[in-house]
Amino acid sequence: MKKTLSYRLFRLGGIPRKLRPLLEAEGLRVADEGLSGRLVMGRVRGPGRRHYGRVEGFSGFLVVTGKRVMAYSYAKRQINIGLDDPRLAEIYVRLTSPEWLAISFEASTFREGWSGVMEFRFRTDKAPRFHEVLVAAGASQGRAPSA
């Protein structure tokens, strides 16, 4: 899969050099960087924020190790949850096509004072593998239910 332009030019959306040894020590199951993606927020509310039908594009990475699931958009951590965390069952994964993986969840599960469904869509040729590994780790299949 072709990497984003911002990744090819500036390594935006790449795994940080300081983080890579930690992730490798945890045992990489599947990883991809320089992914193009979209953050879709429908009726998401947080302290001082309201998003209705907002869609943002990003360049990022997605990693599943023997201990955690981690996703960044640009240089901002969006998902970082241990595979032993019971909230993993509240993360929903689905394949929208063979090269698009969607990860959705209710914002209040991970951010106090927030509500609404957030969905990250990653374009990667490893989407079926990510889906397989995440479901085996305990993630739910489908789309997060809206309140």
Tell me what the structure shows.
By secondary structure, this protein is an alpha+beta fold. The chain has one domain: PH-domain like. It has 3 helices and 9 strands. It has helices at residues 5-10, 20-25, 127-137; strands at residues 28-46, 49-51, 54-65, 68-73, 76-82, 92-97, 100-106, 115-123, 140-141. Strands 1, 2, 3, 4, 5, 6, 7, 8 and 9 form a 9-stranded mixed beta sheet that branches. A hairpin with a 2-residue loop joins strand 1 and strand 2 (49-51). The chain starts with a helix and ends in a 6-residue tail after the last strand.
Key features of this structure:
147 residues; alpha+beta; PH-domain like; 9-stranded mixed beta sheet; 3 helices; 9 strands
* Overall 3D shape: globular
What level of helicity do the residues show? 10-25%
Class based on secondary structure composition and strand pairing:
alpha+beta
CATH homologous superfamily designation:
Pleckstrin-homology domain (PH domain)/Phosphotyrosine-binding domain (PTB)
Top-tier CATH class: Mainly Beta
Radius of gyration (Å): 15 Å
Oligomerization state:
single chain
Supply the number of structural domains: 1
CATH architecture: Roll
**CA distance, first residue to last residue:** 35 Å
Please outline what is shown here:
With 147 residues, the protein is α+β, with helices and mostly antiparallel strands. It contains three helices and nine strands; from the N terminus they run ααββββββββαβ.
